[in-house]
């Protein structure tokens, strides 16, 4: 077994653009659930809205990169409004069911053959990333073993993560963040103090959803393609696992959670595949090894929630529930 | 709880060696692939047309089939996607031509199901048989009712569990899958069909019991909140779904007698499987209704759902009632799964999670936690699912509409159709 | 707060010793008040066919402490919920300082100066005591998303409300706990915190839902004093309470509810002797807890020892279970 390549690919996951995308989307979930107590089980839908919003506005309407970016974020804000209006007055579990349903609706809508010309249906869309890479300030060459494109997307993706973390940190230490934390614990008490709880929840839903949209773009740009099958409910559940791993009511928690998630997945996958190829494990096929990691994610999610709901690094005293 | 996780992993490991035994397909039929495109070729007198060659191209794959004596043809394809299907008109018998307006070649796009049907119509200038709107409507109504009632089997269990424990169980879809997978498994090892079904229902009940005893009851004891429990159920759903895939494989398998020609019942044409499904689920739901309304157990269940603390104070064994609710919920979900395997048709590892949201929609539409609301909500969802295609919605969007309806209903009547408003503060 | 007090002295009225009559006419259920702050008409709310609240007419007197009493299930909390916008009545209209409140959402009601607490205390256990207090502060620019990012825009106001909170915490003897998580407080301390937090809103009318429930007897005295101080500072108080002795000692006016209706109104001494009230408590509902005789005597001794505690209230008087029971027995004999 080639330990060094297993290890180096695991370390590569630490700074991969996909990890950055997961970190951004999980940060959005932290705004939703960790700080405001909103159960968003449709973060994959927000990511899809961002990715498709960008891809469609670039391909169908030919807008420049930053306009596409703006359209993607505005689209996710509209999506948040549509979801929030019926559900934010209701009990928390209604929002959970409506968000997961809405995310699936988005996925069905971009898959339907009726709009193939716009959405590319099941095959998705491709070739929309030129506008992005044309802004690459790094000349061709090798940067830490990466080519200039790979390096550029990592710089942008992680730069975005840092900026968003700082912004969320600033927001959460403000009186605005204090109201959200109050709502997380008891929205009626906050209401009785004269705060418009509905408006705050809506703002939180939109901010977390916009982070999801940005994540969708960071996820899709390095691939150069957006496909509906990437945005199923499982993506949302992986994001929740990241959030719970790192600690939900912290700014850095989701980022560290996303890194841990991908490093652990990469390690288990590498070791299992290595064991199978070397003949040490015969009762598993490589396909089954791939399925095994989903099983591990599921069990990890349960164990975390039961035994360490504050996350690996979180502070139990600040946890919304115990 | 530790025991529960040990058991979860043990299931995985014990079952793993047998994985190779179940995964290979039984015959060299088109079912080597998970998905297939199929259809029936019949002339305008509804007589089958054999020996016609049809090809499907797409997703870097090309497959061919020839229609059999019954006029049926199936092309297995490696993945869901878009395929160009062409009927070789030179292989048609003398005097038979494609009807006017029949696209050939045509594009077939997969939706959620693993089987896509495309019908070529023949005749002397006859357009597709779409003239009889009323007939189509009644057929879809019956199909929708059948689908709605099988959803209701799962939804009633989900609603009972929600009512008595407050848990929104995201692992309910896997309880549905388990029923169908167990029937397939028991049947594959050579047990008679009826025994396989009984064992699958028992298995579903046992799974419900094991979940409650090994996981949910200890969590209730610890005073775990409802939201954390909901997230735990998501983890459980992921783990169980992939444990099933690990052992069952990713392919679509068929239960015995899954393919059947439609029969004519008065003005309605329905497949015998759908008819049976309709009868069985209606009977079982009536039985559940009677038990809930008339028996001591039913009254105890409703009392626990209404107010667990009060029920406990008045001498009802709350844990006992919840245990029974989990067992019954497991059996009902298994039965729903078996019927769903015939409705789709096909057994896959993710068949339950495909309808989980429709089950949720049924429960939410009816009002969270009310059993009869879940029944009505599910039937509404079933009817919407089937009827939308009659009114011109694209077939690959038929699951979208009930989900959309659910969101709209919540906007205007948040407590659902039968739910009660709650007191605040 | 001190501003209110100044106002009152300027006008030459000390609310603590103001003995002008409260009612405009006779003390009948639904009577007009000389100076009402809340007026409710035909407010009704039913749950599943049962009328939880069915109030024909009710006025709450300004600058007074009004107690809302009644047996369990009389609809007191529901009336609170309706008045503060936490629940919607089936019919009726009600106003606060002349502004109609029908259809006004609960947070706007609170902003108008009508602030409530809850029967089951609602403090944010995962926030510190100080953060709980700051959450109550009104007109904070930093609570707007547009300004939240820049501390320069809200830091000044934050200092002001922190100072306000420090004063209140000191008064409520919670200043030593201000950096602790509220979850670490005792039940009584949480009640105090909830009341102190509601004062951060600078309300005109404070509505307390069972302020004494579950409070350690050692703390009840200071709670009573706090409630009376609210009046001294120019606020109006409406509170729900089960314990008649508390009511007797601090209320200027008592409203009695039974089965959703107002059955009696008047000064405490008068209401306690009203046969309809005694009937509501002891006739139809024997399960009502009036406290045991020992506890009542103890409390009375305590209250009598404390001069402060009787300021601004009717004469403390004597009330114990045996007195009421004797009265009931007398009633029955007369019949």
TrEMBL record, chain A:
**What is the recorded membrane topology of this protein?**
Multi-pass membrane protein
What Pfam families does the annotation carry? BPD_transp_2
Q: Which UniProt keywords apply?
A: Cell membrane, Membrane, Transmembrane, Transmembrane helix
User: What InterPro entries does the database record attribute to this sequence?
Assistant: ABC_transp_permease (IPR001851), LivM-like (IPR043428)
Where are the bilayer-spanning segments? 6-31, 38-59, 65-85, 92-110, 151-171, 204-225, 237-256, 263-285, 291-307
List localization entries: Cell membrane
Q: Which positions carry the signal peptide feature in this UniProt record?
A: none
Output this protein's name: Branched-chain amino acid ABC transporter permease
Task: Give the source species.
Answer: Arthrobacter cavernae
Task: List the taxonomic lineage.
Answer: Bacteria, Bacillati, Actinomycetota, Actinomycetes, Micrococcales
Automatic annotation (TrEMBL), chain C:
Task: Check the record and name the SMART domains matching this protein.
Answer: AAA
Q: Which residues form the ABC transporter domain?
A: 38-284
Cite the Pfam families for this sequence: ABC_tran, BCA_ABC_TP_C
Q: Which domain of life is it from?
A: Bacteria
What is a single molecular function from GO for this protein?
ATP hydrolysis activity
What is a single cellular component term in the Gene Ontology annotation? plasma membrane
PROSITE patterns for the chain: ABC_TRANSPORTER_1, ABC_TRANSPORTER_2
Q: Which residues form a coiled coil?
A: none
InterPro entries reported in the protein's UniProt record:
AAA+_ATPase, ABC_AA/LPS_Transport, ABC_transporter-like_ATP-bd, ABC_transporter-like_CS, BCA_ABC_TP_C, P-loop_NTPase
Keyword line: ATP-binding, Nucleotide-binding, Transport
Protein name, please? ABC transporter ATP-binding protein
What is the source species?
Answer: Arthrobacter cavernae
What taxonomic lineage is listed for the species of origin?
Answer: Bacteria, Bacillati, Actinomycetota, Actinomycetes, Micrococcales
